[in-house]
Amino acid sequence: xxxxxxSPRHKVTxxxxxxxxxxxxxxxxxxxxxxxxxxxxxxxxxHYSYGVKDTDKGExxxxxxxxxxxxxDFLLTLESATSSQxxxxxxxxSEWDVGQPYEQYFGPGTRLTVT
Amino acid sequence: xxxxxxxxxxxxxEGQEVNITCSHNNIATNDYITWYQQFPSQGPRFIIQxxxxxxxxxxxxxxxxxxxxxxxxxLPRVSLSDTAVYYCLVGVNQxxxxxxxxGTELSVKP
Lengths: 115, 110
What we know:
The complex is a heterodimer of chains A (about 120) and B (about 110). The model of chain A has no long low-confidence stretch (mean pLDDT about 90). In chain A, the strands form 2 sheets. In chain A, strands 2, 4, 5, 6, 9, 10 and 11 form a 7-stranded mixed beta sheet that branches. A 4-stranded antiparallel beta sheet of chain A has the order 1-3-8-7, with no helix packed on it. Helix content of chain A is about 0%, strand content about 55%. With about 120 residues, chain A is mainly beta. The N and C termini of chain A lie far apart (about 35 Å). Chain B is about 0% helix and about 45% strand. In chain B, the strands form 2 sheets. Chain B has a 5-stranded mixed beta sheet with strand order 1-9-8-3-4, with no helix packed on it. Chain B is mainly beta. Chain B starts with 8 loop residues before the first strand and ends with a strand. The interface of A and B includes residues 42, 43, 50, 103 and 104 of A.
């Protein structure tokens, strides 16, 4: 299995508090991604990174920010958590080149509950 | 990215062959077709990928007709452990733009 860890694995927090989720990889892959998964919606891309300090928005980025100061770490921050952000969050990594389809490797997920 | 359509759910029995068809009418010339598998409480896992005709690996086969507007994932002799959600994706992983649809929830019964 690809070397991807997520922390914490479970978190309960209150509405309005900031929350940071961490994704750590040991594969030295250039691309890192954050997804959320909710019943009835499948996986939806929140943000992704294509290098240190290079990030871009996905399809559901409102209320989230990301940072990547090192190749191996990608942080997802919920600036002020809301109940609608209760979800399972998955980190993924991959390589990529123009025209080349690379598989994404997923982490174990973080279950976040906002009360 | 091309939109995909696949059945929401399928049932099967152990030992049977399961075929899951995905429709992708707007597939582009340089798009690849990729299938992922997801078990409960785990992240998705890559199964197979192809561009045209047939691809086979130790887990599954992928059949792609000449017009490439659909594809079929074939799982030979399924077991209970194949119970999972299967996602069909079309694209070239354009720097993160993988779009996961609803997937097909496969239930394998004894």
